[in-house]
Amino acid sequence: MPADEFETIAKLLRPLTRGAPEALELLDDAAVLKGRPGFDLVITKDAIVEGVHFLPDDPLDLVARKLLRVNLSDLAAKAAEPFGYFLAVSWPEGADRELFARGLAEDGDAFGLSLLGGDTTSTPGPLTASVTMLGWVPEGGMVKRSGARPGDLLVVSDAIGDGFLGLKAARGEINDDWLAQRYRLPQPRLEMRLALRTYAKAAADVSDGLLADAGHIAEASGCAVRIELEKTPLSEPGRRWLAAQPDTEAALLALASGGDDYEIVCAVAPEDLDQFREAAGLPVTVVGAFGEGQGIAVTHNGAAVTPGHLGWRHR
Predict the structure, then answer these.
(1) Which long-range contacts (CB under 8 A, 24 or more apart) does 8-11 make?
(2) Three-class DSSP category at 300
(3) Which of 64, 144, 233, 269 reaches 20 to 30 Å from 223, CA-CA?
(4) 314 has pLDDT over 50
(5) pLDDT of residue 8
(6) DSSP summary character for residue 272
(7) pTM of the model
């Protein structure tokens, strides 16, 4: 007989509080958080749905870890230190709740996260889960999307396109276990917190796609952005895939608009680039710049490109 809501809470979820007093042992319908002098509380929320954000046969421990990590990625882009989270899950019949909880526990320990509360329900399907994630940032220090100015450089961390290719690998369309794991288990760039606080004028995580998320920064900042496709940083598997494509420009557009990379895209003043690069803790690449006006201009080797779409959009 499947566990009911209260059995699930007592057996699987209460241990995930890690003893945090704010969680009240999950015996109440709320949590109590005290302020932290000199800090602002940053709150973000993302949901995942079976068949949309993960494949139906993905192991549920990895699904749970991805749920935490996509929210952690939002905190990373805000230069916030993770603290805890609220969880809501709608369980289809037969879902392995224990495996899901083990995934939450693994990354809860890895990232210092405590479960503070939430809700569980049953559903005929698909499995749907959401997290409200909390983090701390020094007072006034959150990095917004709206701080870019004309003349700032557009900079992105590590590699772009692995999420797009990883989904193909997870579906069996290409043979690469590393890429499939990259899709199932993204890496929130929390190590960039101090560099972002110190040098970034604006930032976002690359969830919808590099083109789309750079555009989000430009729109929020009231300026234009130019993206040079040939400068898109790629992993070794990404470079191999690109080399095998008959149309380099179309392939680069696909990589830059595919989404699910969870890298950081940000605006950095030219005079701060060297210090930002040194402080970032991982490779960063200049892929364009912000300018006067509005909108997104995409080029490839100096020639204007008109993308079919900029990134993932939910209907």
Answers:
(1) 8/97, 8/120, 9/120
(2) strand
(3) 233
(4) no
(5) 76
(6) G
(7) 0.91
- From residue 245, give the alpha-carbon distance in Å to each of 83, 184, 232, 242, 249: 43, 24, 16, 5, 9
Cα distances (angstroms) measured from residue 130 to each of 21, 116, 137, 161, 288: 22, 14, 23, 25, 34
Among the ranges given (120-124, 237-241, 285-289), the one the predictor scored with the smallest mean pLDDT: 120-124
Report how far apart the first and last C-alpha atoms of the chain are (Å, whole number).
37
Phi, psi (5° rounding) for residue 232? -55, 120
Which alpha helices (H) appear in the chain, and where do they start and end?
A: 5-8, 60-77, 97-111, 162-170, 177-184, 193-199, 210-221, 236-243, 248-257, 273-279
User: What does the alpha-carbon distance between residue 53 and residue 188 come to, in Å, rounded to a whole number?
Assistant: 16
Contact 259, 209 (CB under 8 A): yes
Tell which residue, 115, 104, 111, has the closest CA to residue 190.
111
User: What's the confidence (pLDDT) of residue 311?
Assistant: 61
Q: Whole-angstrom Cα distance, residue 275 to residue 46?
A: 32
Q: How far is CA 266 from CA 214, 290, 313, in A?
A: 8, 10, 21
Question: Under a CB-based contact definition with an 8 Å cutoff, are residues 58 and 183 in contact?
Answer: no
Peptide bond into 126 cis (omega under 30): yes
Identify the band that residue 254 occupies on the pLDDT scale cut at 50, 70 and 90.
very high
All domains in the chain, ordered by first residue: 5-138 (3.30.1330.10), 153-304 (3.90.650.10)
- Going by pLDDT thresholds of 50, 70 and 90, the confidence category of residue 315 is very low
Sheet order of strands, 224-228 included: 200-205, 264-268, 153-157, 284-291, 224-228, 295-300, 303-305
pLDDT in tens, 79-120: 999 999 999 999 999 999 999 999 999 999 999 999 999 988
